[in-house]
């Protein structure tokens, strides 16, 4: 029969109750699971704790010599003693914090043994974690059915990092976040979302009837950077090998170009014909510009232009999946991220979220800026974006390789499964409020679950991420499914060819 006195009663143990943890004996009929939240009334207010483990105890089985002695007599313990009456379930709890009239604080005083452990009130859990009924719906709090809706400002304004091993569901989660942003009504505040999509996973938004009208995909083959859009000083950002003097010469030439819309070839011609530049400098400039030219992205004007790229309530996908050239990808990210940030500073475009997949490729920790030209603009937005509502969502499967400056400016971390001990250690150090017990859980999280820590929530919070509403990406299909699809495609092609003949 289920006990009506709540989940159980706080017990007195060798090292508890303390301010940080305590145990309680579970009342008959209650099913308490690891990870579940509980509530207690204490002098400080309503204490919220999280069950860190559950174990069984039975005094009849505490002494191995007695158990062995009785069992070796040919009889079983339960035929001699009422053992089942003495089996108890005990739950260990880590204190999360205390809710009281002034808000939420750390627990500074231990609960008393004998205090009743109660099912948490869902309203208090919602307030306790700082969730927002009008916020972005990311999923559910496991065991409690509470919607995890996070306030968009708290979640995004001071930047978000999504960290996990490959295949843990980072892109899935960021798609859920994008759906939530696209579903917002005008009076709820709509922002513009721009995704740097390295694997072509987000173009599926454009194929989904619900989101197609709100999505534009810009494939890398169409993307252009207009030289004329570039202030002369900025071009040297793409030419990190130039010395100061060489860059100055180039700027001089660019300022002198009379043609309004000029391309890289026009610039090369200008330099070839410019007798004022020393021939050694000229050779260096020409070889560097030729290298830029091979990326094939420099034209006379930007595509997309800023107005198309940053539209309120819309999604723009910069699809880089067709190129493997890292320099080219970095050039694109550098240019468009800088234009977005500068325009946002002048309030010319709506507040935006720039989602960067594989962000360790664009803002790597160890690489020098000349090999990672996009690093400086990403760290700039990370440092200063908050003031202008220019937000970043950095996604990475190798947090240890991601710029610490950028990562440390991400005030919310969404951590899915991470198994590499170096990455775990790095996360433990860079995310506040994560203890060893939580780190252990991160390494065994199933796909679709994760931990939110930082600015977005008052206390670290595990979430079961909701299903996506939009069409899933066909990239990253399970192997059998991909093989079946491939077979179907080949068969269809053969059939089409036959019909054609
Ligand atoms: N919350 C979820 N619910 C259901 N399925 C999910 C969830 N999250 C991820 N998956 C599935 O798991 C697989 C991997 O997810 P996803 O591509 O998002 O991983 P990832 O972390 O982005 O991987 P990578 O580092 O390779 O980019 C996909 O097939 C996806 O559909
Ligand atoms: Mg991914």
Question: Would you give an account of this structure?
Answer:
The termini are far apart. The mean pLDDT is 91. The strands form 3 sheets. The chain has an 11-stranded mixed β-sheet. Strands 1, 2, 3, 4, 5, 6 and 7 form a 7-stranded antiparallel β-sheet that branches. A two-stranded parallel ribbon has the order 13-14. Helix 9 runs antiparallel to helix 10. The chain has 3 domains: 113 residues, no CATH class; 219 residues, P-loop containing nucleotide triphosphate hydrolases (Rossmann fold, 3-Layer(aba) Sandwich), CATH 3.40.50; 70 residues. It has 18 helices and 20 strands. It is elongated, with a radius of gyration of 29 Å. By secondary structure, the chain is α/β, with parallel strands linked by helices. 35% of the residues lie in helices and 22% in strands. The protein binds adenosine-5'-triphosphate and magnesium ion. The site of adenosine-5'-triphosphate has 14 residues, from helix 5.
């Amino acid at each position: 029969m289920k006990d009506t006195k709540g989940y159980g009663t706080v017990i007195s143990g060798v090292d508890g109750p303390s301010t940080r943890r305590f145990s309680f004996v579970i009342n008959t009929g209650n099913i308490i699971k690891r990870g579940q939240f509980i509530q207690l009334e204490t002098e400080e207010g309503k204490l919220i704790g999280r069950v860190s483990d559950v174990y069984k105890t039975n005094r009849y089985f505490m002494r191995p010599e007695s158990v062995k002695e009785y069992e070796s007599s040919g009889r079983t313990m339960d035929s001699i003693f009422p053992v089942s009456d003495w089996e108890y379930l005990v739950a260990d709890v880590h204190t999360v914090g205390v809710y009281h009239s002034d808000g939420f604080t750390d627990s500074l005083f231990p609960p008393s043994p004998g205090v009743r452990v109660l099912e948490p009130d869902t309203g208090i859990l919602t307030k306790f974690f700082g969730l927002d009924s009008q916020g972005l719906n990311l999923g559910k709090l496991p065991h409690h059915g509470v919607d995890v809706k996070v306030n968009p400002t708290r979640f995004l304004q001071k930047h978000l990092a999504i960290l996990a091993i490959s295949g843990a569901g980072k892109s899935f989660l960021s798609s859920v976040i994008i759906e939530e942003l696209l579903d917002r009504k005008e009076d709820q505040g709509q922002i513009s979302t721009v995704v740097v999509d390295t694997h072509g996973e987000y173009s599926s938004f454009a194929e989904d009837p619900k989101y197609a009208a709100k999505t534009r995909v810009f494939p890398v083959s169409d993307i252009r950077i207009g030289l004329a859009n570039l202030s002369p000083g900025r071009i040297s950002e793409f030419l990190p090998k130039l010395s100061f003097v060489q860059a100055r010469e180039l700027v001089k030439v660019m300022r002198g170009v009379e043609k309004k819309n000029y391309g890289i070839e026009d610039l090369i011609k200008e330099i070839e014909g410019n007798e004022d530049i020393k021939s050694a400098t000229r050779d260096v400039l020409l070889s560097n510009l030729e290298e830029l030219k091979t990326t094939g992205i420099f034209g006379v004007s930007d595509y997309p232009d800023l107005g198309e790229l940053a539209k309120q309530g819309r999604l723009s996908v910069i699809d880089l999946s067709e190129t493997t050239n890292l320099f080219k990808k970095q050039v694109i990210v550098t240019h468009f991220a800088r234009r977005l940030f500068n325009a946002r500073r002048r309030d010319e475009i709506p507040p935006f979220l720039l989602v960067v997949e594989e962000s360790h490729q664009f803002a790597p920790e160890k690489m020098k800026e000349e090999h990672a030209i996009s690093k400086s603009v990403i760290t700039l937005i990370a440092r200063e974006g908050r003031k202008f509502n220019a937000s970043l969502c950095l996604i990475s499967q190798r947090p240890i390789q991601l710029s610490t400056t950028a990562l440390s400016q991400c005030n919310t971390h969404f951590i899915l499964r991470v198994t590499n001990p170096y990455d775990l250690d790095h996360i433990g150090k860079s995310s506040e409020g994560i203890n060893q017990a939580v780190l252990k859980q991160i390494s065994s999280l199933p796909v679709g679950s994760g931990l939110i820590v930082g600015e977005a929530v008052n206390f670290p919070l595990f979430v079961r991420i909701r299903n996506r509403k939009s069409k899933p990406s066909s990239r990253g299909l399970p192997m059998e499914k991909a093989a079946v699809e491939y077979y179907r495609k080949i068969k269809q092609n053969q059939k089409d060819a036959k019909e054609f003949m």
